[in-house]
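Recall the central idea of this unit: under ordinary conditions, the amino acid sequence of a chain determines the structure it adopts. In this exercise we apply that idea directly, starting from the sequence alone.
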Amino acid sequence: MRPFLALLGKELRAFFAAPLVYFVGAVFLALSGYYFYTDLNAFITFGFGESIVEHLWQRLFNDIVRVVITVIPLVTMRVYAEEKHLGTMELLYTAPIRDGEILASKYLACMAVFGLLLGSTMLYPAMLYRIQAYDLTQLYGVYLGLFLLVSAMVSVGVFISSLTKTQLIAAVFTYGAVLLLWNLTWNEAAVPNDLLGAVSQLCAYNHFEPFARGIVDLKDVAYFVCVTLFMFFLTMRSMESRQWRGRR
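Accordingly, the structure predicted from this sequence is:
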């Protein structure tokens, strides 16, 4: 446990000692604040009495997800690629620590960054709640879905970073992968009818949308958990590939 905690501390220091995470945080806060202002303004102007619980949060957090998709590659691109580029990955492999602990430390460090970013968005519902109290039930579902979605997409980024030593390549491919996962059924007319059902089950948007409406369904929870675990499995296989490539 002590080597794992030391490695986790190293990963956290690597994130928060570098300016990139602060630039990413500034962009995320600026865009999410902009969406909150414009969505709330649109709701007040054109809402025609629609309930905040049923409409505003659904609209706002769908917009915030688009911001999350943009910044995830910038956070996950370095976790393996930078270590490979600097040659420090081999030191980790020879240290008395298991591959699973290496993966867990890198993944948890990324999730800590997004935990702070997503936690900052709680300011928006808190501001409205202070003005007028409302039912918080939907928000519980929204934040559970947002956490599961980010967890799955971060695991995708970590896996892609494990495949290359170039951070730019990792960022570009991660962005393409998570954007495709989110928009798989964006143009349903382009998908053959016999495949539409299967593709819709793979689309992250289709599984996040119920959460945005405050509905927690076990099949949607299972989807994000399965994507995360599958990406962990692929990342472990990527790490183990050094053995058959003669890089122990």
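Residues 20-46 form the longest helix (27 residues).
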